[in-house]
Protein 1
Amino acid sequence: MRLLFASLASVGHTYPLIPLAVAARDAGHEVHFAAGPAVHAPLAANGLRPFRPGDAFYEVYAEDLEPELARLRPDLVVHEWGLPGAAIAARRAGIPGIWHGFGRLFPDDIGLEPPTKNPEVAGRPHLDICPPSLQDKGFVATQRRIELRPVPFSPSGPLPPSAARDGSRPLVYLTLGTAFGTPELLTTVIAGLAALGAQVVVAAGRVAPEELGETPDHVTVHRWLPQAELLSQVDLVVHHGGSGTTLSALAVGVPQLMLPQGADQFANADAVTAAGAALRLLPAEVRPGAVAEQARRLLPRDGEHRDAVRALAEEIAAMPSPATVAHHLPEYAAAA
């Protein structure tokens, strides 16, 4: 079967699709991936045949994809929630299509059109990587969902020695993603975490490490880290509440201190906090003392949040794997 995956050209929208695309490739399907060139490197490294459709660099519109559908004639298009244009192009071409989620169904006001609101492509099934207990209740009740276990993905690479767990103290991982970090915010959070005496590993993202100035010996700053490899070692994740980091931390059973900044992050923080697996600080509340206080509540291995974290990790582990879902893609295509 020939499959076409399509996503916005950003880490947060592309990476959630890669585990299923790789599983489909491993199952013998021919996989192509339409996205802007910013995400081509990890796609090509995994044999997913990336290409830039039309003039697309970030968003893909229906007219960008229509000639590529005529060229490739895929049997199924897997289009992520951020690309209604890809769903529309597939529908107009008479090609089955399935939405692929990247977390909880996002609110209406974050600059993306919810996939349930476009009448031209509403009603298509959804590959849903969010555990049902965290997913929007109305979405669960009304949509055709295919559960798919979220699998943490990041480009492979060894952890630098300075990011490896030293074993003598708790390990805290700090990231504010690829779009929302600022030197001022990172410096404030680092100051709070440094007071814990824990080993703190920072992925600074778009902020150059030198912009953060001097840090204590037990705090190491990196531009980028292989997050999927690091998460299984940490005791606490402090982050912005992006869907990918949120689900990746839950999948490995790590509590979270969430510092939402925009997009769907506030809704994610609300849901995970309500489930008991996280604490949050809103932007006006982020001060070194508040960061240290909330982190201390989350670090103990017998703390009040650990049971909730374990329950969500078990729920995620029970969801169908990418390999299982890839095996059933032909029947999903027939029913789409």
Note: The mean pLDDT is 94.
Protein 2
Amino acid sequence: MTDRATDTDRRSQRERMLAGDLYIAADPELAEEGRRAARLIERYNATPADEAGERRRVLGDLLGDIGDDVEIRPPLYCDYGYQIRIGARSFVNFGLVAIDVGRITIGDDVLIGPNVQLLTATHPVEPGPRRAKFEAAEPITIADNVWLGGGVIVCPGVSIGENTVVGAGAVVVKDLPANVVAVGNPARIVRHL
């Protein structure tokens, strides 16, 4: 990770975050965007299941893009929302945590089990920058027709290829190709489809 967050860097913390560079998450602009997302998430999570139109409107305000016929069962949690893109006909079960300080792209026809975590945030290993509250992010990409079992954790910078199945409780720390089954911690390929 390149540290471009120097005193001579005139970019806003938001611009740094969106570029994947080190930034300060407590920045007032980012804090306000986080509060906006929190209000929308609270509204979404409180909207009854029989009010599908209202749920869809809230998701449209929260997320960067959402395809047709997407179902996300509450509760849903994210940082900003606008960094998340979900393709058509995807299904997300209860309790998704999407730390979207980096872009999260979810393809079409994806199945996401309960209590899945999509984690784009990274922190410096060195204690000084970490103590100074710097962080960064690496994007997550989940291709079409992927199935993430319950409790899967996808770590920063990971891409998962189309048709891949990730078994319940797996921790995905590196890219997975298309058409495989992966299980375990760290996730390892156990079968080709």
Note: DSSP finds four helices and 20 strands in the chain.
Protein 3
Amino acid sequence: MRFPLVPTARAVWIAALAAPVALVVAAALPGAWMAAPAAGLTLLLLVALDGLVAGRLVDWRIAAPQDCEVGEPLQVAVLAEIAGKVGNGTVDAALQFDPRLAPEGRAILALAPLVDDASWSGTAGLQPVRRGTAALERVWLRWTGPLGLGARQVSHQLEDEVRVWPDLAPVRSPALQHFLRDAQFGLIARRIRGEGTQFEALSEYEPGMDRRRIDWKASARHTRLYARENESERNNQIVFAFDCGQAMCEPVDGLPRIDRAVSAALTAAYVALKGGDRVSLFGFAARPEVATPFYGDSRQFHRLQTAAAGLDYHAEEPNFTLALATLSARLKRRSMIVVFSDFTDPTGAELMIESLGRLVDKHLILFVTIADSELAELEAVDPDSLEALATAVTADSLSRQRALVLQRLRQMGIDVIEAPWDTIGYRLIDAYLAIKRAGAIG
């Protein structure tokens, strides 16, 4: 630990203003040239003495949570106990940390005195922008002496770490919890009647029912129409596959697309676990990165959360051929595969389309992509110059190419969800429930 003395901004301004005066005195009175060095030495002496009589640091502490979620506010508190008088009534602090916690990698804050005037406290408000383990690296504290000319500055190496988890705000939302309590997939165990394959009961046919559900033999016996009610299948295998390549690392409204996708997937995974299905996560870029076992109990949801936190960011193109071939080899039965990905042009999407096409015959594929709001805004702007016109035309061309790729996927029998990031999780849940009611997975 070191306690270096440093001049304050006040001392620097005094020196800067005194320098021209010293030059004038030396030019007008050559015999008094010694006055200028003497004044400089006096100022240096005052700076040193002011710093020495400044308060003494007795103790300090950093208070930061061990866990937080990406995109959610994070408060890091700096506490200090200083014996003695602090000149300007404030203690300045600076924090250096992993850029995952904030893009700048640093924060400057002012500590205010508490009740006893010996304890000082300040809080830095951060907002994590990426998942992973982020280190708090160093802290600086500085306070001035009574004259405000000299200051003491202390620097400490930190060993604190903050684990940045995926955003689970949608999972905790009152709307979803109310849905889980009261809907078919609620906490009260009940059989789910739908259009699955396992017979549950007969009910009298009503207009609007699917005519394929009519049980003709039972209807003949009772001389009125009866329809079969089947129990929706449970224990289905659901795989959430994440493209962690370059396109998915691009930000959308402040956070990378992969983080938006992870939040949506975990929300849908939570509903699937409550519905009695088994869930697995799979992440890939140039090669497969993360592959979890299938979990079938909502009490194991934290394992999915931990695995999702390990999905890294890669500034490289994804290898769909290798990744989806590896995933297909792992699956021993028909499953629902939810692929989160993005693309910038049809040429780059060709390999993705071919690789997904190989899975359609064996599995149910759901392709999820986040709507490009920036592209839509550029396309909607009324051009008022040639440059703006060229931008709008390019945006419209890219939008049409994107729609063409999604249409090709639909023609192959792949369900496609394209929606803004803040609604994509609920769109995914609706699609999952519709597929489950239809018994289309097993």
Note: DSSP finds twelve helices and 20 strands in the chain.
